[in-house]
Amino acid sequence: MPYTKVTEAQILGTRECNIRCDYCRLVRDIPFERKDELDIDGWKTAFSKMDSFGIKTVKGLGGEWSVKEYLPELVEFITNNTNIKFALLSNSSFDNPYRTKLVDGGLNSYFASVDWADPKILDSNGKSAPGLKMLLELKELGVENLGANTVIMPQNIDHIPQILEFLTENEIVMNLCPAHGGDNYAFEYRAKTKSGNIANCMPGELEELVDTLFDMKDDGCFFAAPASYLDAIKTHAIPLDWKCGEFSQLRIDANGDLKICPDGGPMHYVNAGIETNEKYNILSMSPNDFRDLYASFDANKWRARCPGCGPWSAQYRAEKNKRYGIGDPVLSGRKNR
Ligand SMILES: C[S@@+](CC[C@H](N)C(=O)[O-])C[C@H]1O[C@@H](n2cnc3c(N)ncnc32)[C@H](O)[C@@H]1O
Ligand code: SF4
């Protein structure tokens, strides 16, 4: 029996990055003591702990975790020593020998950032062309689950259906997210620029896109999130007033501290009504500590204190996984999932 119903974790493996997208504040502005980041031994312990908590799927992001030489060795450790399926989220800037090491280590899933399907049209942040190339190569190399993280921005909003079509043709799942803009810097993913802010789309453009995506999902396109997520985009992406209010994902910062929110900084659990100022760190937690933390999470208090953000598709997926158990596929764009 697992300790809680939470089976999914997201990890900020590092806050370093070798690219600076203009919609990501995370690696640009957030002060963080790099010396405090976990090393490979710390991460091996963290993955063993997550395994003992009943976590089944882990999405590793950053920053850009592939800047770390140790990552392929960590992937191999996860494959050989845990029941966890690990997905790397990346800007695809690493070279072929590094890619080979990841695949040889048993990499289960890979999500590339892809904001344009035709790099001849636009590839302003330099991630889309290498991302598509990497996905197609990893497919050839037999990596099981392949996905694209696509951010809706004013510049690419017209182009999203074309990207979904291209991905579906290649059996790659789209994980779509509206670019979070604005100036509430309590959150980490907040673009400061107009180009990276969904609020600067033309009136009606977002609604039109959502209607098209509903039809495409019905037609069997490979779309990762449940249909309810598309409704949430329509209502909450621009006002940024969506609230998750459920403890469905374990989130771990680069130094091992637990975060509670898809987007929030290293907040203390006191924000969720747990009356302690203690910070939780994965390295010092036991399965019972995790179970107690989960049990004392008060969704109502959390919602009352949360200022709201934009909906995150990974959160919808995690909530569904939590509700239906791990039998529900982690990655599937197929109809009605
Ligand atoms: C923070 S990145 C980490 C992984 C990797 N460095 C990458 O760029 O793919 C994870 C995803 O969040 C997206 N992202 C960054 N800033 C965002 C924002 N303000 N709103 C929505 N998505 C954002 C990125 O495009 C990327 O697909
Ligand atoms: S979105 Fe990814 S590649 Fe871009 S700055 Fe953030 S971490 Fe780096």
Explain this structure.
With 337 residues, the protein is α/β, with parallel strands linked by helices. The protein has a single domain (8-324), classed as Aldolase class I (TIM Barrel, Alpha-Beta Barrel), CATH 3.20.20. 34% of the residues lie in helices and 12% in strands. Strands 6-5-4-3-2-1-7-8 form an eight-stranded mixed sheet, sandwiched between helices. α3 runs parallel beside α4 (96-104). The longest helix is centred in the N-terminal third of the chain and has 14 residues, at 40-53. The protein is globular and about 50 Å long. S-adenosylmethionine is lined by residues 17, 23-24, 26, 61-62, 64, 89-91, 113, 127, 149, 151, 177, 179-180, 189-191.
Distance between the termini: 25 Å
Give the count of structural domains: 1
The distinct bound ligands, ions and cofactors come out as: S-adenosylmethionine, iron/sulfur cluster
Q: Class by helix and strand content? A: alpha/beta
Unreliable runs, pLDDT <50, ≥5 residues? 327-337
What would the average pLDDT be, to the nearest integer? 84
* β-sheet strand percentage: 5-15%
Query: What would the CATH topology be?
Result: TIM Barrel
Roughly what percent helix?
25-40%
Q: How many strands in all?
A: 8
What's the CATH H-level superfamily name?
Aldolase class I
- SSE string, helix = H, strand = E? EHHEHEHEHEHEHHEEHHH
Count of helical regions: 11
Please state how the strands of the largest beta sheet are arranged side by side. 6-5-4-3-2-1-7-8
Major sheet characteristics: 8 strands, mixed
CATH class: Alpha Beta
Rg computed from alpha carbons, rounded to a whole number of angstroms? 19 Å
